[in-house]
Design brief:
homodimer, about 290 residues, alpha/beta, Rossmann fold, 6-stranded parallel sheet
C-alpha cells in the first residue's frame, strides 16, 4: 500500500518506454517487502539539470540513470563514489536530505553475475570487445577480479585509447593491450585466451544475426564466453561458443545484480536473492522481453 | 503492474506525511483499472519553483497541490482555469508535453458532495464560517448553486473583506454580508438561515472539543449543517446540530470528490462512483483516520 511517506525511486533515460527497470525494481520491492515504488521518467538531454533539481525539490530518494545521461548526470550531483570518479559515469543517484550522491553499480553487477565462474578470472587473460561505457565498467570489474591481461578491441580508436589508458594508469591493469583490428589471427588469440566478453551492442535485438566474431575454430570447453546483451537471451556470439562446448553467460544476471545493487544503496539493506528467486525473476524478465526459449 | 510507460501522479505539500491523497488516489486507480501510480512529495516553499520545473523535466503528468502551496504555485504554471484566476489558488496541475495547466477542484468537490441536498441551496440564505482558501472555494460553489445570500464570518477582517469583495464583484452574490462578530443574535440569525457551513479549522483533530458556535437553541430539523472538516468524522459543531434534529454532513465526501475530479482532469475519463463504492472508500479513509464510529 502506497502511503504519503512511501519513498519513490525512478529511472531516467531517453528513450525509456522499453526499460525493464520498473518491472524488475517493483519486483524487488515486493519480494523484499520494502516500502517504496519505482517508476520511469523520459528525460530529454536539455532537461537533465531540471530533472536532478526536481529530484532534490520533490525528495525523490533514488534514481537510476540510463542512456544518454550516464556521463552528463555527474555534472549535477553533489558527491561521487570513487568508481564514478574513475569511470566518469553514474547509473545510480541517492538523495539524502537534498544532497545527491552518484554511484555506478554496473561493475558490481558484472562481478555478482559471475557467481561460481568468478574463480576463472583470477590471473586469466581476457579478450574484451567494446570500449564504451559498459566496457569501462567491465574493466573496472576485471581489475577487482585480478585478471592477468585484457586484450581490447573496439572499432572506435579514440574510445579504445581512452579505455587502454584507464586500465593501465588507473586500474592497475598494466599489461592491457589493444587489437587494432579483428585480424586473421583471431583463432590463435582465442586459443590462448580462456575468457571472451562482448560489451558491444552487436547482436542485440533486432540485429540478432550479427556477432563480433564469426567462424572461430579454436573455441573449446575450457572457454567462458560472456555477452552483456540480454535481448536476445542467447546471442549469435553465445550460440556459436556454446556449440563449440564453451560455458556461456548472457547479460541478464548482470542486469539483475546492477539493479539490486542500486536498491541496496537506496535502502541500506543487505538484499540477497536465493536460487529460486533468481530463477523466478529471470523468467519474469525473459517473459517480458518476449523470449521464450 | 507498473511499467516504464505508467504515468505518475503526486501530491505536493509541507507537511505531507499525513495526507490521505495517496491512499485515496491509488484506490481510484485500482477501482477504475487505470494505468497510473500516485505518491506524495514533501516540498518546502523555497523549492516550489524547482518542484514544478521538475514536474516538467520528469514528465510527471499530474499533481495535487496542498498547503502551503495552493496560492504560490500559480506563479509557476503556464495556464489557469477560470476558477483558478478567480480564486487565486490551485489544487491540481496537469502536464501536457511540458505545458502545465492549473485547476481547482474544491468547488466541484463541494457541489458533488451535496448529492440530493444540493436542492436545498437554491435561493437559500447561507451562514458561512471562515474566509480562507476553503471558504473561497465554497463561495464559488454557492454561486453555482444559486443561493440567495451569504452571511460571512471570520476573525480575520482582511480575509473577510477580500472574500466579501470576491462574492459581490466576481461571483454575482451581490447580497453577501459580513458579520463583524459572533454576536448575541446568533440564535436569530440561525433561526432565519437554513444552511450553516463551517470552513474554518475550528474543531479539527486534535482540538475536537471546539466549535465555531455553541449553545444555539434555534437549530431544528429544517437546518442543513455542513462541516468541511473530515477528522473527526463528526465535529462538535455537527454533533450539536444533529442533536437538535438538523441534517448534517462532514467534509469526507468533499475530500473524495475533489480528488476524483483531479483524476478526471488527468485521465480525461468520466469516472463515476456508485453508492457501494462510495461507502467502501469512506470506510477505508475513516479507518485510516482511526475514527471507527
Amino acid at each position: 500500500m502506497i502511503k504519503a511517506t512511501t519513498p519513490l525511486y525512478a529511472v531516467i533515460g531517453d528513450p525509456i518506454a522499453h526499460s525493464l527497470s520498473p518491472l524488475m525494481q517493483n519486483w524487488f520491492i515486493q519480494h523484499f517487502g520494502l516500502d517504496a515504488v519505482y517508476v520511469a521518467f523520459r528525460v530529454c538531454p536539455t532537461e537533465l539539470k531540471n530533472a536532478v533539481q526536481g529530484m532534490r525539490a520533490l525528495g525523490i530518494q533514488g534514481m537510476n540513470v540510463t542512456v544518454p545521461h550516464k556521463e552528463a548526470v555527474t555534472a549535477w550531483t553533489d558527491e561521487y563514489s570513487s568508481e564514478v570518479t574513475l569511470l566518469g559515469a553514474a547509473n545510480t543517484l541517492k538523495n539524502v536530505d537534498g544532497k545527491i550522491s552518484a554511484f555506478v553499480t554496473d561493475p558490481y553487477g558484472f562481478i555478482e553475475s559471475l557467481s561460481e565462474n568468478s574463480a576463472r578470472f583470477n590471473q586469466a587473460d581476457v579478450l574484451l570487445f567494446g570500449a564504451g561505457g559498459a566496457a569501462r565498467s567491465v574493466c573496472y570489474a576485471l581489475s577487482r577480479l585480478s585478471v592477468n591481461r585484457i586484450i581490447l578491441h573496439d572499432i572506435d580508436d579514440q574510445k579504445t585509447e581512452s579505455l587502454l589508458r584507464l586500465c593501465r594508469t588507473n586500474l592497475g591493469l598494466t599489461k592491457t593491450v589493444a587489437l587494432k583490428s579483428i585480424a586473421d589471427d583471431m583463432n590463435d588469440i582465442i586459443a590462448a585466451t580462456p575468457i571472451v566478453i562482448n560489451a558491444t551492442a552487436i547482436g542485440m535485438h533486432p540485429q540478432e544475426n550479427q556477432s563480433v566474431i564469426e567462424n572461430v575454430r579454436t573455441i573449446n570447453k575450457g572457454h567462458f564466453f560472456y555477452d552483456l546483451i540480454y535481448n536476445p537471451a542467447k546471442t549469435r556470439f553465445l550460440r556459436m561458443a556454446e556449440k563449440a562446448g564453451a560455458v556461456v553467460q548472457s547479460g541478464l544476471d548482470m542486469l539483475i545484480f546492477q539493479g539490486l545493487q542500486s536498491m541496496r544503496i537506496w535502502t541500506g539493506e543487505e538484499l540477497k536473492l536465493n536460487h529460486a528467486s533468481m530463477q523466478e525473476l529471470r523468467t519474469l524478465l525473459t517473459h517480458f522481453l518476449g523470449n521464450h526459449e
